[in-house]
Each structure stands twice: as structure tokens, then as C-alpha cells.
Amino acid sequence: QVQLVESGGGLVQAGGSLRLSCAASGRTASSYAMGWFRQAPGEERKFVARINWNGSRTFYADSVKGRFTISRDNQNTVYLQMNSLKPEDTAVYYCAADIEGTFRRADYWGRGTRVTVSS
Predict the structure, then answer these.
(1) Following DSSP, what letter does each residue of 30-91 receive, concatenated?
(2) Mean pLDDT across the stretch 55-66?
(3) What's the pLDDT tens digit per position in 63-83?
(4) Cα(94)–Cα(99) distance, integer angstroms
(5) Does the CA dihedral 95-98-104-108 come out positive or negative?
(6) Which has more confidence, 102 or 86?
(7) DSSP string covering 7-32, please?
(8) Mean pLDDT over residues 30-36, rounded?
(9) From CA 86, how far away is CA 78, in angstroms rounded?
(10) What contacts 41, CB < 8 A, 6 or more positions away?
């Protein structure tokens, strides 16, 4: 079992920055690839970024490439640094863990943290 708890969401003006955190706990948490997804009102949940188990590989959605950075530390916390935020980044952001790393079907999900970007 892996438990995921997100934090760091809030209200920010366009052009601003936020850093989201996802604390992963569980005996095998360090073995999982971690990812961030987001769901805007009335839309499906969409992939944002992922990082492999040891932090050596990352991958981003085109919509956030160059603005967002995913990272993880050796305490099993995953971060999403979000810069140059746009109103279209407004969504609930979810952390996910996937042992295979593909996130076709994540093994675990957090409850989400809300990000609102005002224009």
C-alpha cells in the first residue's frame, strides 16, 4: 500500500508560481514512478508530468513543458514547481503512483489539491 497526500495548492495570479508537494508513504513507495495529473471543471483528468523511481527521467505534457518541473527527493516527496501560471492551469491537481511508470492505469491516487489562477 502507498498513501499519497498532496499539498501546496491555492490561489495565485496569472504569471505567478506555486509549488505542489506529494508526500508518499508506505514500505515500497520509493519503488514507484510518480506523476501529476489535473482535472479542470467539466473536463476529464489529464496527465501533467511524471518522474521515474529514481528521478533520472521526467516527461511532461506539451501544455506545461518549459513552465512546470517535476522532482522527487529521497524522503519520498514529489514536487511540481509551476511557474508562469495561466488561468487555464486552474484545476484540481492529483498525485499518482505507478509501479510500471506508464500511468496507463495508476496504482494509487491522492485526493488532490486545488489550484486557481486568476487573470
Answers:
(1) GGSEEEEEEE-TTS--EEEEEE-TTSS-EEE-TTTTTTEEEEE-TTSEEEEEE-S--GGG-E
(2) 97
(3) 999 999 999 998 899 999 999
(4) 17
(5) negative
(6) 86
(7) E--EEEETT--EEEEEEEESTTGGGS
(8) 95
(9) 22
(10) 91
